[in-house]
């Protein structure tokens, strides 16, 4: 009697392990809503004298258009659009079916009123608020040295 039960348990364990190998693991730099992925929110290190930091990330795998309407982090007093899409508030359209890239060379989010310096190798909490998807908790990675 014991033998069939042990075989079933071994078969189930093997099946679960096989499925785990086939399914790609979520990366620590990926954050998901029901209809889009936020990939790799990052910024550069800052000094004590810096009052703002450029926040970069990519929105992809978008199956339903959305709008980023607010960005919050305990490291900053607020956020605004910077670069090519500069505006005093956060309002970013994220269209369906294409990647939306925020980077230092184009449009990015500026964290303003930094409360302390951001250090290389650290991660800080980030809250993204979308019009349709609601609130998404993420992390900002500080991956690069301060810009010259």
CATH topology heading: Immunoglobulin-like
The termini sit apart by 72 Å
The number of distinct structural domains comes to 1
Helicity, as a percent range: 10-25%
Q: Which stretches are low in confidence, meaning pLDDT under 50 for 5 or more residues running?
A: 20-26
For the secondary structure, the number of strands is 10
- CATH architecture title: Sandwich
- Structural class determined from secondary elements: mainly beta
**Cα-atom radius of gyration:** 20 Å
CATH superfamily: PCu(A)C copper chaperone
The CATH C-level name is Mainly Beta
As an assembly, this protein is: single chain
How would you state the average pLDDT, rounded? 89
From N to C, what is the helix and strand string? Answer: HEEEEEEEEEE
Content of β-strand: over 45%
Give the helix tally.
1
Mass-distribution shape: globular
| Main sheet overview | 10 strands, mixed
Task: Give a concise summary.
The chain has 148 residues and is mainly beta.
Task: Describe the overall structure.
This protein has 148 residues and is mainly beta. The chain has one domain: PCu(A)C copper chaperone (Immunoglobulin-like, Sandwich). Helices cover 14% and strands 46% of the residues. It is built from one helix and ten strands, in the order αββββββββββ. It has one helix spanning 2-22, and strands at 30-32, 37-44, 52-60, 66-72, 76-83, 92-94, 100-102, 107-114, 123-130, 134-144. Strands 1, 2, 3, 4, 5, 6, 7, 8, 9 and 10 form a ten-stranded mixed sheet that branches. It is globular and about 70 Å long. Mean pLDDT is 89; it is low at 20-26.
């Amino acid at each position: 009697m014991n033998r069939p039960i042990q075989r079933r348990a071994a078969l189930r364990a093997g099946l679960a392990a096989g499925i785990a190998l086939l399914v790609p693991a979520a990366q620590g730099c990926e954050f998901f809503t029901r209809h889009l992925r936020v990939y790799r929110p990052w910024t550069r290190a800052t000094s004590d004298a810096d009052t703002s930091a450029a926040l970069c990330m990519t929105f992809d795998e978008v199956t339903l258009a959305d709008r980023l309407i607010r960005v919050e982090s305990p490291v900053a007093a607020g956020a605004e659009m910077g670069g090519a899409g500069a505006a005093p508030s956060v309002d970013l359209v994220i269209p369906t079916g294409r990647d939306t890239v925020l980077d230092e060379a184009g449009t990015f989010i500026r964290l303003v009123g930094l409360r302390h310096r951001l250090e290389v190798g650290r991660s800080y909490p980030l809250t993204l608020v979308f019009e349709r998807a609601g609130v998404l908790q993420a992390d900002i990675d500080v991956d690069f040295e301060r810009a010259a």
